[in-house]
Write a structure and sequence with these properties.
Keywords: Cell membrane, Membrane, Transmembrane, Transmembrane helix. This protein is mainly alpha-helical. It is 73% helix and 0% strand.
Length: 303
């Protein structure tokens, strides 16, 4: 495993840890502030940060005719439609259960990448994906509705729809990273997301007061998650296969459950701990031993 590939694996792992924390922050924030307001402020903060950093990142652009379609499609998938579904999902399900659903993303990406990017996965990888998903389902079946999850079934369904959006986003980014740096793509996401969510935020009810905890969560979402999480994930996609990078998403339910337990007081039963072990096994099996990433990859179906 060469140095660039090793860095890519470390980058996507760090992104997953950040995203696991984001479920907690989003859950806390939407308990005080309307979901669309939270997402708009998150996008706005990210955009301002990228504007400040633009002189250093603007060189990572090699625009080709027609790229605007891919760039617009990428942003519509995520953050636009993705966050519409996810912001509503955490209102009805717990942060831990929302995190569990994210483990369906690798299978969705693997199937779509098979048809669009012509990526091939070994039987070992497919087995790993399936084992991880079984672990997630096991964890879900051993979860109970409660104060943190008033309608877990609806919330988990909305989160699954968010994963469909994330799968489309992942494949578009895989194609675009051939000509754009990770941070340029992340900046474009923030700019388009800010414009997209502005009217939705204006149509929502704004709180008369907000706690410092909620403010801190929104700042965390806007700066650390938007810049750090997406930047690291997009960087990984430029050096390892889309399905391999997405395979790390299987760790999201594990870290989210652990953080939910530590920060929100959620508790894990024995069966959930066993399921966590199954998820780890699935992630281990789904990773390639000797990744070989060609410099040129076949264009996606939307290219």
């Amino acid at each position: 495993m060469n140095n660039l590939v090793l860095k890519a694996h470390a980058a996507v792992f760090t992104a997953v840890v950040i995203w696991a924390c984001s479920f907690i922050a989003l859950k806390v924030a939407v308990n005080e502030v309307a979901p669309m307001v939270v997402i708009f402020l998150r996008m706005l903060l990210g955009s301002l940060a990228f504007l400040a950093a633009w002189p250093w990142i603007r060189h990572g652009i090699n625009y080709q005719p027609g790229d605007w379609k891919l760039l617009a499609g990428m942003a519509l998938f995520e953050p636009c439609f993705y966050f519409i579904f996810e912001a509503q999902a955490v209102r009805y399900t717990s942060a831990g259960q929302a995190g569990m659903v994210t483990a369906t993303l690798p299978l969705l990406v693997a199937v779509l990448a098979y048809f669009t990017l012509k990526e091939r996965n070994s039987l070992r990888q497919w087995l790993g994906f399936l084992i991880a998903v079984i672990g997630v389902i096991w964890m879900t079946l051993n979860s109970e509705d409660g104060e943190q999850a008033p309608n877990a079934l609806l919330g988990n369904l909305l989160e699954f729809l968010a994963m469909l959006m994330a799968a489309g986003y992942t494949l578009m980014v895989k194609h675009l990273t051939r000509r754009y740096s990770a941070f340029v793509l992340t900046a474009i996401q923030s700019f388009i997301g800010t414009v997209f969510f502005l009217p939705l935020a204006l149509a929502s009810t704004w709180p008369s007061s907000i706690s410092m905890t909620a403010v801190g969560c929104i700042v965390f979402l806007g700066l650390i998650v938007s810049l750090g999480g997406y930047g690291l994930y997009n960087y990984s996609l430029s050096h390892i296969k889309a399905s391999t990078s997405a395979g790390y998403i299987n760790l999201l339910p594990v870290f989210t459950l652990l953080f939910s337990m530590l920060l929100l007081g959620e508790r894990l039963v024995l069966m959930q701990w066993l399921a966590i072990g199954l998820v780890f096994l699935g992630v281990f099996l789904s990773q390639e031993k000797t990744p070989i990433i060609p410099k040129e990859v076949p264009p996606g179906a939307t290219g």
